[in-house]
Structure formats: C-alpha cells, structure tokens
UniProtKB/TrEMBL annotation:
Xref: InterPro entries: DUF29 (IPR002636)
Gene3D superfamilies: Uncharcterised protein PF01724
Pfam (any one): DUF29
PANTHER family tied to this protein: SLR1203 PROTEIN-RELATED
Organism: Candidatus Methylumidiphilus alinenensis
Name by which UniProt lists this protein: DUF29 domain-containing protein
C-alpha cells in the first residue's frame, strides 16, 4: 500500500490514489478504501436526491394545506427543487429507480411530513403521498 494513510488525511490519500491510478501503479493502491469511497459516492448521490425530494414534498404539502401563506419564496423553492432533481437525474440516470422504490419513497415521505409539520405546526397531512411522481416533478403541477 502507498504512503499516505486513509484515516490520517483523506484528501491527501485521495490525491495520492488518483496519481497512482494514472501512473498504472495498481500494485500499491489502497483497493479496499478506494472501493469504499466509490460506494460512498453512490450513497451520497442517493442522499442528495432524497434530501431534495423531501424538501420539494414538504413545500408541496405547505402549498396545498396553507393556501393563505403561498408566496414567491415557496414557489421559487418548489421550482428550484424540481430543476435540481431533474438535473440530478440527468447526471445520474440510475437514480430514477429510487423514485419507484416504495421503501425509499416511504422514507422520503416521512422526512417531508416531519419537515412540513415542524414548519407549519399542522398535523393534517396525509400518511401516504397523494401525488404520483410525474405530478411531483412536473413544472405545471401545483396542488390545491
């Protein structure tokens, strides 16, 4: 294995590993940690998508259940999250499968419910998402 320890300075370790890869020095690569880091990239992308979906869903809930508070700030957040999610799915098309994964979506919906309840003080939100993915991500959809 090469000289810089993964658990001492990950940034320096990553630079060294990329240099070794480019130099074809496969014999001294830190294969186990490289594999972990590659897996972490996928997990990070999934967390990013989940976070953006939860924010979007929470704002759609607030939009529907607090019509008197609708404003440009919520509108901009909804539009921005939809664009960010679309871009994210373009950059990592394999993540589209998450949108149809019931377990993943349930976790995202739970986060959205908690966020919306925390921000509004309301406890009237549906336990199951009332919208389909095309509506949620569609630029023309505005609930209520």
């Amino acid at each position: 294995m090469a000289g810089i320890a993964y658990d001492i300075d990950i940034a320096a370790w990553a630079q060294e590993q990329s240099r070794l890869l480019r130099a074809g020095r496969f014999d001294i690569l830190d294969i186990e940690h490289i594999a972990e880091e590659i897996e972490d990239v996928s997990k990070s992308e999934q967390r990013e998508l989940a976070s953006r979906m939860a924010v979007l869903l929470a704002h759609l809930l607030k939009w529907q259940f607090q019509p008197e508070r609708r404003g440009n700030s919520w509108r901009r957040t909804i539009i921005a999250q939809r664009k960010e999610i679309a871009y994210h799915l373009e950059e990592a098309p394999s993540l589209k499968a998450k949108l149809t994964d019931a377990r993943w979506f349930d976790m995202v919906w739970s986060k959205a419910l908690a966020q919306a309840a925390s921000e509004t003080g309301l406890d009237v939100f549906p336990e199951v998402c009332p919208w389909v993915t095309d509506e949620i991500l569609g630029q023309e959809f505005w609930p209520g």
